[in-house]
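Hi there, hope your week has been kind to you so far. Would you mind checking whether the C-alpha cells look sensible for this chain? I owe you a coffee for this, so here goes:
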Amino acid sequence: MTELTEDMFAIFDQPEFSFKKIKENHSPEEVAQLKDEFKAVWQTWKAVNQTVAKKLPNEKFAKVHVESWTNGWNLRDHYWASYRLARLENASSCIGVMLDKKQLQVYLMFQHYKSESRDGTPEEYNHLLTDIPDWCKNIDKSYWYLWDKDEMEFVDHLSLEKYLNDSSVQKQFNDEAKKTSFLLGKFAFRKQDRVDDMEEFILSGINELTPLYEKL
C-alpha cells in the first residue's frame, strides 16, 4: 500500500525540464540532486504499477509498460504507464495511468503516437461513446471526467455527471471528440483528494474501465 504524497506531485513543479537548460542554471551537484529526486519518485511509481499489474489476471492483460523518468534530453513533466488487454496488445487503445503536478488519473485512451503501426482506428474507438451511459450505471461517477485529445492537460475537464445529465452537452462533446478521440478517466486531484493506497486506486480504475475497454 503506497500513499500518494505531496512530494510526489511537487517534483513536477519544475520551471524547466530540459537537461540543457537545467544545467545552464544549476550547479552539477544541484543537477545530480534533482535527478535523484525524480528517479526516487519514479522508482515508487514503477513499483506501484508493477504491483497493480500482478493483481490483474495475467491471461487477460499484457505486460504493463512503465515509461521512463527521462527521454534522455528531458525530465518528464509527468509519469505514465499503460495497460493493454492481451488480445489488444498491438492496438492503439489502452488504459493509461498518469501522475503529474495536478492529479493522478486512470483513463481509457486511443494512443495516437505510432498509431499507424498499431491496430485499430480512432473511428472504431470513438464508437465506445455510445456505450458510456450503460457502462457507468454501476460506478460512483463523482471522480470521473471526459475530455478530447486536443484538450490541454491541465484544464478542467467535463464531469461524467454533467455529460450524462445534459443531452446538449453530451452531443456537443461527442461531436468534438469524434474529430480526434475521447478520453475517459478517474481522477484524484492534488490537495483535494486523499489517496492512501495508490495501488487500489489504480486497480479499481482499471477494473471499472475494463468492461468498456473490452467492447473493442
Q: What stands out?
A: The chain has a mean pLDDT of 93.
